[in-house]
Structures are given as C-alpha cells and as structure tokens.
Amino acid sequence: MTDTKLAYKLRILSECLRIQREVVDNARKAMTDAQESATENDDNTEEKLYNSYREEMHNKRDMFARQFDLAMEDLNQLNQIVTSKEYQKAEFGSVVETDGGTYFISTSLGQVKVDGNVVFAISALAPVYRSFEGKKIGDSFSFRDRTSKIKDIF
C-alpha cells in the first residue's frame, strides 16, 4: 500500500472514530439525563404521578443504555481495524473504491466526508457489502440492478 493510500485510510478511520465517539457521548449523556430525571424529587407532584414519571425515565435510561452499549461495540470494532494490512480482497477493514463510490468496511455510519470526498462507512452486514464481499480489484458486482467494478482495495 502506498503512503498516500495509507494516509487517506488513516484520515477515513480517524473521521469514523470521531463520529462514533460523538455517538457514544450522546448516548451516555441521554442515559445520564434520564437517570437524573428519574431520581429528582419534586415535592409538588403527587406520589402516584411521580412514580409513573420515574418509571418512564427508567425505561428511557434503559433504552439509552442499550444504545450506548451498541455504540461502544461499534467503537471497539473501529479500534480493531489494522490500517497497515495489505488488503487483497473486500473484507472488514478495507477501503473499496468502485466506479459507483468508495466504501470503508467498518461500522454503519453512512456518508463520511474526508478530504472533500464522500466515503460510505458500512458494516459487514450491509447488503451492498454482501454484493462485493471477497471480490478483488477488477471484479464486477451487481447491487440493485446496477453493475459496478472494483477499481482499488486498500
């Protein structure tokens, strides 16, 4: 892999990590806010209403806790990517340039802008990835009635 490609891949990974850390922080904050709302005392509220509100806040906290756990799993996946590996085929951790777009096989973050270019950060479970999984440079694949060709993998 050339130094230029490695540097580009590092910038893609860095941006994905930044975005994912933001997702983790937002989920953590929402979870904490819901917990604090549940434990606040409001002397002006009848006990029955307060218990209902507290239960609702606990449910929200639990929902945000699940979102936080999933976000942490995605962050851990990103941290496991080996950027210096020489990828010969489309697989987890690779950047796949096609004539239909550039994909970073990592976690599902959608469109990520790097150096003014759009890169699609997708998970290994994404249907589009399944259409070119294991393919090599020069191979073609079809997705949604459109055929594309793999131009580069790194």
Written overview of the protein:
By secondary structure, the protein is of the alpha+beta class. The chain has 2 domains: 3-79; 95-153, no CATH class. 49% of the residues lie in helices and 21% in strands. It has helices at 3-39, 47-79, 127-132; strands spanning 95-98, 101-105, 110-114, 117-122, 140-143, 146-153. A 6-stranded mixed sheet has the order 3-4-2-1-6-5. Helix 1 (3-39) runs antiparallel to helix 2 (47-79). The longest helix has 37 residues, at 3-39.
Percent of residues in helical segments?
A: 40-55%
Low-pLDDT stretches are none
Spatially, the strands of the biggest sheet line up as 3-4-2-1-6-5
Work out the oligomeric state of the chains in this entry: single chain
How many strands?
6
Using only C-alpha atoms, the radius of gyration works out to 21 Å
Structural class comes to alpha+beta
Instruction: Return the string of H and E elements.
Output: HHEEEEHEE
The backbone outline, from C-alpha atoms, is elongated
Estimate the mean pLDDT confidence. 92
Query: How many structural domains can be distinguished in the coordinates?
Result: 2
Roughly what fraction of the amino acids lie in strands? 15-25%
